[in-house]
Write a structure and sequence with these properties.
Blueprint: E1 21-26, H1 39-42, H2 46-51, E2 59-62, H3 80-89, H4 97-106, H5 113-119, E3 127-133, H6 142-154, E4 159-166, H7 176-192, E5 196-204, H8 217-227, E6 234-236, H9 239-247, E7 260-262, E8 278-281, H10 290-297, E9 313-316, H11 341-347, E10 352-357, H12 358-367, E11 381-386, H13 402-415, E12 420-425, H14 427-432, H15 437-461, E13 464-469, E14 505-510, E15 518-520, H16 532-539, E16 553-555
Parallel strand pairs: 1-12, 1-13, 3-4, 3-8, 4-5, 6-7, 8-9, 10-11, 10-12
Antiparallel strand pairs: 2-14, 5-7, 13-14, 15-16
Helix pairs in contact: 3-12, 6-7, 7-9, 13-15
C-alpha cells in the first residue's frame, strides 16, 4: 500500500530500517537518591540496574513533569495521561491552565458535553462554583472563575452560588480580601441584571476542602459541611466581612481561615448544595481536587459521614484523575493532538503491537495515540488488553500482570510479525499509590522481571530496546520537609507519600540491533518525554517531522 505523501517520512541517513524495537514504559518509575523509602532501589532489579552502566551514552534522565509535559509550572507533577500524550505525540501540548484559557477564549468550554450537562440544572436549580479564589495560577485563577460565571449567566443560569477557598500560599497572605472584593463586585453586576448571584461559603485552603493524597479527610469534611449542609462555626451576612473578621483572630492567615457560611436576615444559609443543583469545581490542577471530587461523586463513600448525598450534576474544570475517571464529567477536554508518532509509523509500514493490563491499557493506546480510540490501520496493528485484578487493592497482588505483559511482548517480538512492540508495566505506579512500601518493593521486582523477559527476546531477534517511564512514584514513598528529611505528622508518625513525584525518569537504549556509534546527545538543555518520539522514529530508520521535539540520539562517527 503506497504511503500518502503527507505522511511519508524521510529515511534516516545513518540508521537502518527493519529492526524490531521494544518500547517499554515503566509506570511510576522515577530516579531518586537511594534510601529506605526508594522502593526501586530496595527491590532486586538487575535488568534495570544493568542499564546504568551505559551512562551517559545509552542511559540518561529526562523530565516528566511541569512544562516538559505541557503543565503550567514546575510544581506540577506529571501524570500518566499527559506523560503518554507527550511520549506518543512528540510535541508538548497545553495541558491544565493553558488548556482552560484556550477553551474559555474560544467559547468552546460552553459548547462541550460537560457544560451542557450542568446547564440542565439552570432552569429550576442553582449552579455552584467551588474552588481556590486566587490569581496565583497554580491551582486556579480568578479571571477564569469570572469568565465561567459570566458565560453561565449568559446561557441561562439564574441562581449562582460561589464557595470560595482563600489562598495565601501561592499569593501573599492577606490578598484574600482583595480577591473577595473583586468577586463581590462582579456578582453585584450580575444581580443588577436579574441574576441571583452571591458567595455562599468559604474557608482557608489548608483547612477547608483542599486536602490532597488522603492526608486528612477532616479538611474535606469541613468544606462539605459548609458547602452542602450549610453548616459552619462562623456565620456572616457577606464574605468580605467574613474574611476581614476571621483574619483578625490571633495567628489567623488566609491559608487556615476556619469555615464560614453566608446567611440571610433570618440566619439561614444562602447556598447549600441540594438535590437537582449543578456543581462545578473550577480548579484546573488536580491534586487538591481529587478527594473533594470523590465526596461529590461516589455513592459508595466511607471517609466521613456526609449526612446527605445530594443528587447533583457535577463537572470538574478538567478530569482530575484519568485512571479513576474522576470526575466523570468535565468542562475542558484533553488537548486535540494530531499526527502522533504511532500514526506516522503505521502510515510508513511499521507493524505495531501494544499491550498492557486494564489499568494502563488506555495509556499505551488511547493517550499514546493523541486521545484517540481504535486502530489507525488494523491490518498493521494489534492491541492486547490483559484484565487487571479487580475487587482487591493492588498491594494485595503487587506483581499485578507484569509477567503476563512480559510474556505477551516476548511472544510478539519472537513472532516476527511486528516492528514495534510497545508496553506499559503499571506496577510501580499502581502499587505505589497504595502507600505500602513492602508491596511496592515486590511490585518493582516483578516489573524488572518483565523487562528482562523482553530484553531476552530482543537479544534473540537482534533488535533494539527503548525503556523509559511516564513519571515518578515508587522511587520516593515518603513526604519530605523543606530540608529533604522524611516528614512526620502531628502524632510523630511517618507521612507516607502515595502520589506521583517531581523526579526525572530514566531512559535507556540498547540491544544487538543498535547501530554502532548511536548515543544520547549532550547538547539538549532539558530533554523530556516529548523527545522520545523522534528518538524512536530514528531507531526505526526514519527522520521525525520537523515540528517534533528533537531526537535524544546522535550517531558518532568514530
Amino acid at each position: 500500500m503506497a504511503t500518502p505523501s503527507a505522511w511519508k517520512l524521510d529515511d534516516h541517513p545513518k540508521l537502518p530500517k527493519g529492526k524490531t524495537i521494544a518500547l517499554i514504559v515503566l509506570d511510576g518509575w522515577g530516579e531518586s537518591a537511594p534510601d529506605q523509602y526508594n522502593c526501586i532501589h530496595n527491590a532486586p532489579t538487575p535488568a534495570m540496574d544493568s542499564l546504568k552502566n551505559g551512562a551517559p551514552d545509552t542511559w540518561t534522565l529526562i523530565k516528566a513533569h511541569g512544562t516538559a509535559v505541557g503543565l503550567p509550572s514546575e510544581d506540577d507533577m506529571g501524570n500518566s495521561e499527559v506523560g503518554h500524550n507527550a511520549l506518543g505525540a512528540g510535541r508538548i501540548y497545553a495541558q491544565g491552565a493553558k488548556l482552560c484559557d484556550i477553551a474559555l477564549a474560544s467559547g468552546k468550554i460552553f459548547e462541550g458535553e460537560g457544560f451542557k450537562y450542568v446547564s440542565e440544572s439552570f432552569d429550576k436549580n442553582t449552579l455552584h462554583f467551588v474552588g481556590l479564589l486566587s490569581d496565583g495560577g497554580v491551582h486556579s485563577r480568578l479571571d477564569q472563575l469570572l469568565l465561567l460565571v459570566k458565560g453561565s449567566a449568559e446561557r441561562g443560569a439564574k441562581r449562582i452560588r460561589v464557595h470560595i477557598l482563600t489562598d495565601g500560599r501561592d499569593v501573599l497572605d492577606g490578598s484574600s480580601v482583595g480577591f473577595v472584593e473583586t468577586l463581590e463586585a462582579d456578582l453585584a453586576k450580575h444581580r443588577e441584571n436579574g441574576i441571583d448571584a452571591q458567595i455562599a461559603s468559604g474557608g482557608g485552603r489548608m483547612y477547608v476542602t483542599l486536602d490532597r493524597y488522603e492526608n486528612d479527610w477532616e479538611v474535606v469534611k469541613r468544606g462539605w459541611d459548609a458547602q452542602v449542609l450549610g453548616e459552619a462555626p462562623h456565620k456572616f451576612k457577606n464574605a468580605v466581612e467574613a474574611v476581614k473578621t476571621l483574619r483578625k483572630e490571633p495567628g489567623a492567615n488566609d491559608q487556615y481561615l476556619p469555615p464560614f457560611v453566608i446567611v440571610d436576615d433570618a440566619g439561614k444559609a444562602v447556598g447549600p448544595i441540594v438535590d437537582g443543583d449543578a456543581v462545578v469545581t473550577f480548579n484546573f490542577r488536580a491534586d487538591r481536587m481529587v478527594m473533594h471530587a470523590k465526596a461529590l461523586e461516589y455513592e459508595d463513600f466511607d471517609k466521613f459521614d456526609r449526612v446527605r448525598f445530594p443528587k447533583i450534576r457535577y463537572a470538574g474544570m478538567l478530569q482530575y484523575d484519568g485512571e479513576l475517571k474522576l470526575p466523570n464529567r468535565y468542562l475542558v477536554s484533553p488537548p486535540e493532538i494530531d499526527r502522533t508518532s504511532g500514526e506516522y509509523l503505521v502510515h510508513n509500514g511499521v507493524r505495531t503491537f501494544a499491550c498492557s493490563e486494564t489499568v494502563k491499557f488506555g495509556h499505551v493506546t488511547f493517550f499514546w495515540n493523541g486521545n484517540r480510540s481504535g486502530y489507525f490501520n488494523e491490518k498493521l496493528e494489534e492491541y492486547v488488553e490483559i484484565p487487571s485484578d479487580s475487587g482487591i487493592s493492588f498491594n494485595v497482588q503487587p506483581k499485578m500482570k507484569a509477567l503476563e505483559i512480559g510474556e505477551k511482548a516476548r511472544d510478539a517480538i519472537l513472532s516476527g510479525k511486528f516492528d514495534q512492540v510497545r508496553v506499559n508495566i503499571p506496577n510501580g505506579d499502581m502499587v505505589g499509590h497504595t502507600g505500602d512500601i513492602e508491596a511496592t518493593v515486590v511490585a518493582c521486582e516483578a516489573a524488572d522481571l518483565a523487562v528482562k523477559m523482553i530484553f531476552d527476546a530482543i537479544e534473540q531477534v537482534k533488535g533494539i530496546y527503548v525503556v523509559t517511564a511516564d513519571h515518578g512514584n515508587a522511587e520516593d514513598m515518603v513526604k519530605r520537609d523543606k530540608s529533604g528529611k522524611p516528614a512526620l505528622d502531628k502524632e510523630g508518625k511517618l507521612q507516607i507519600l502515595t502520589s506521583h513525584t517531581l523526579k526525572p525518569v530514566p531512559i535507556a537504549i540498547g540491544g544487538p540491533g543498535l547501530s554502532q556509534g548511536v548515543r544520547f546527545r549532550k547538547d539538549l538543555e532539558t530533554p523530556g518525554l516529548a523527545n522520545v518520539a523522534a528518538t524512536v522514529m530514528n531507531l526505526h530508520g526514519f527522520v521525525a517531522p520537523a515540528d517534533y521535539e528533537p531526537t535524544l540520539i546522535e550517531v558518532a562517527e568514530n
